[in-house]
Automatic annotation (TrEMBL):
GO biological process, one term: phenylacetate catabolic process
Boundaries of every 2Fe-2S ferredoxin-type domain copy: 266-358
Keywords noted in UniProt: 2Fe-2S, FAD, Flavoprotein, Iron, Iron-sulfur, Metal-binding, Oxidoreductase
GO molecular function, one term: oxidoreductase activity
Residue ranges annotated for the FAD-binding FR-type domain, each copy included: 2-106
InterPro entries: 2Fe-2S_ferredoxin-like_sf, 2Fe-2S_ferredoxin-type, 2Fe2S_fd_BS, Beta-grasp_dom_sf, Cbr1-like_FAD-bd_dom, FAD-bd_FR_type, Flavoprot_Pyr_Nucl_cyt_Rdtase, FNR_nucleotide-bd
UniProt cross-references to Pfam families, sorted A to Z: FAD_binding_6 (PF00970), Fer2 (PF00111), NAD_binding_1 (PF00175)
Gene coding for it: paaK
Cofactor(s) it depends on: [2Fe-2S] cluster; FAD
Name this protein carries in UniProt: Phenylacetate-CoA oxygenase/reductase subunit PaaK
Domain of life of the native organism: Bacteria
Length: 358
């Protein structure tokens, strides 16, 4: 799972002025490795100005499409996104790691559920995959989408969403919220906030009728929507959130108060792809991931911000402190899973297993 594979780009389509959809050709021998679930993401790697640059992008195709496609939106100062939008063309090859992520729920053709999604901007990417896959897999289920953008011209996948609405007239409802384009109904103007979500739940959406809610967008938007849903009676366990690394501030590790001037060492063993490798590191100085990379291990990672879960692993022995976590559920942490990019050892020996994290 930690290996990158060179995939050829089959198609590059401009969805908006600053967003491209990139479709990959998956050779027959890699099809099993690249089978995905709705809502998962791919980690892409490129060498840009002699630097190894990695970013995670959500898959936007349905499982039933038998197509592997991601959307890459150009962000201000975004090294990878800018390079991708300017450079990628059909026929180019890009290093891609197999799909990862848990932004989904199990589907069943017998289900008769009502799903809700709130998306803003490029947050539509995993949501589109979830909606398309769910409506095809569960013929008795319904989906409601609230999608926020600046204006009509910035709506990613607008044509595809329109076609999807035409295909599922009775089972898919889509509401657009615009922050810089006036619409006739005042509720549909502005940003998606906690207050606006509460108004939706009061006038348009019955929270008690929702089985699962998916939220993807800027952090403040997602926290506001989640809070409004919980205040309306939705259990937190039924609310799924997917955060993008670009939407959070950079975190700087703050060393713990040292009990003495002694620099304590930890012996770390990493189990990955069936192999075990060890290295020594100083406690409270750098993360397990950074220390492993410095020791020459090809440990998997992408954002290094505690968001994407690419570096997810399980602590088999010893203890670690995890600085920030935007990716793991409480039950995963209880079972010993951590994000190696945010984990600092607190014992003399630590064993982490990437293979058990799958």
């Amino acid at each position: 799972m930690s290996k990158f594979h060179p995939l050829t780009i089959a198609d590059v389509r401009h969805e908006t002025r600053d967003t491209i959809a990139v479709t990959f050709t998956v050779p027959a021998e890699l099809r099993d490795s690249f089978r995905f679930q709705q809502g998962q993401h791919l980690t892409l790697r490129a060498h840009i100005d002699n630097d190894d640059v990695r970013r995670s992008y959500s898959i936007c195709s349905a499982v039933q499409d038998n197509t592997l496609r991601v959307a890459i939106k150009r962000t201000s100062g975004g090294l990878f996104s800018g390079w991708a939008n300017d450079t990628l063309r059909p026929g180019h090859t890009l290093d891609v790691m197999p799909p990862m992520g848990h932004f989904n729920v199990p589907l069943n053709p017998e289900h008769r559920k009502h799903y809700l999604a709130f998306a803003a901007g490029s947050g539509i990417t995993p949501i589109l995959s979830i909606i398309k896959t769910t409506l095809a897999a569960e013929p008795h289920s319904r989906f409601t989408l609230v999608y926020g953008n600046r204006a009509s011209s910035s709506v990613i996948f607008r044509d595809e969403l329109s076609d999807l609405k035409d295909s599922y007239l009775e089972r898919l409802k889509i509401t657009y919220v615009m922050s810089r384009e006036q619409q006739d109904i005042e509720l549909f103007n502005g940003r998606i906030t906690q207050e606006k979500t509460a108004q939706f739940l009061q006038h348009w959406i019955n929270a008690s009728d929702i089985d699962t809610a998916f939220i993807c967008g800027p952090e403040d938007m997602m926290l506001g929507v989640s809070t409004a849903l919980q205040q309306a009676g939705m259990p937190k366990a039924d609310i799924k959130i997917e955060l993008f690394a670009a939407s959070i501030p950079k975190h700087q590790h703050q060393p713990r108060a040292a009990a003495s001037d002694t620099h304590r060492q930890t012996e770390v063993t990493v189990i990955m792809d069936g192999n075990a490798a060890s290295f020594s590191m100083e406690q409270d100085k750098e993360s397990l991931l950074d220390a492993g990379l410095r020791a020459g291990l090809d440990m998997r990672y992408s954002c290094k911000g505690g968001v994407c879960s690419t570096c997810r692993c399980k602590v088999i022995e010893g203890k670690v402190d995890m600085d920030v976590n935007y990716a793991l559920e409480d039950y995963e942490i209880a079972r010993g899973y951590v994000l190696s990019c945010q984990s600092f050892p607190t014992t003399d020996r630590v064993v982490i297993d990437f293979d058990q994290a799958e």
